[in-house]
Amino acid sequence: MKNKGFPEIIPAAAISEACLDSAAIIINTTGDSSVVNSLAELFPQSGYKVYYVEPGINQLKETIALCSSLKIRSIVLCGEELPEIKSILPDKPYSAALVSAGSNEDKSNILTYLLEDGLVSDFSHIAYQSYKYDPKLLQKTKGKCFEDLRLGAIRGDISKIEPHLRSVNYMFLDMRSVRYSDFPESLTKSPNGLYAEEICQIGRYIGMGQNLVTTYIYGYPSKSKPKSASAQLTAEILWHMFEAISSNVSEDPGIPEVEKLLLRKIVSMGQEGQDLDFYTSSSTGRWWMKIPEVKNNNNQYVACSYSDYITACSGEIPMRWLFFFQKINHN
Prior knowledge:
Helix content is 28%, strand content 22%. By secondary structure, it is of the alpha/beta class. It folds into two domains: 8-246, Ureohydrolase domain (Arginase, Chain A); 256-328, no CATH class. The chain has a nine-stranded parallel β-sheet with strand order 1-3-2-4-9-8-5-6-7, with helices on both faces. It has a four-stranded antiparallel β-sheet with strand order 10-11-12-13. Strand 10 (263-267) and strand 11 (276-280) form a beta hairpin. Helix 7 packs parallel to helix 8. The radius of gyration is 20 Å and the shape is globular. The mean pLDDT is 92.
């Protein structure tokens, strides 16, 4: 295996508090080093470390749990399919997001599992194509007040994805969501899908997440030729994630000390008492909107995008605001 020290290869048993200086730990379950070799050809732009381990599938659960206990973000390279779902998700409430083309390629059953798992507090399905999505599952997604974002909805403004990933704990990234022309080693050879640049941008948004624990990347050949398109694109996604993690800033307008540092923008909707409050960070460009919790006379701060603010400025209540107002005040 070629390596220039990025990432730094260590045995799984060496994961400890000494690794707290790292942006993340890559956990490779495929036995193939093509991705890490491609990553070693790239240049980190910030002074961060990334560690790389190959624990084997039998040690995967323990390795992920160890990273989680140390609060080190882990990225699992899975190859064609995800490991057994129950073995990689927690037994306590969690949030999740899935980037995939639909439900017809989901041999691991991750979509159905997330929709049926009572421990899932929030879930977003991103970049799906309607003709590849079982309508029953899509209806179930909406019925549980989970979020979905079609591929067509993000094509003109990919920044719409970022709010969906900001508070996610577990991220599932299916490489089959990339179109064949940008990913010629695709397992499905789909003519439509995400562009290479778009999935790298999604990698950046994943790295910007405030509560990320583990990311699973799958849907690509486990065994690749040196410098193959799949290995290089996967490595570039990882690079974008690490760059974002290394420069990430923890922000929460629900904390008074943080709120003082944010710029508050009040948008009048034309009637008294119908003002919408937005907050934005000048350092990261993130946006939030304040949603009233009517029953408890309280407020919640929900991640949103600049386009939601612009929609409000045009005199329309953003759909994301309405969605969360109904969800928060459901009972």
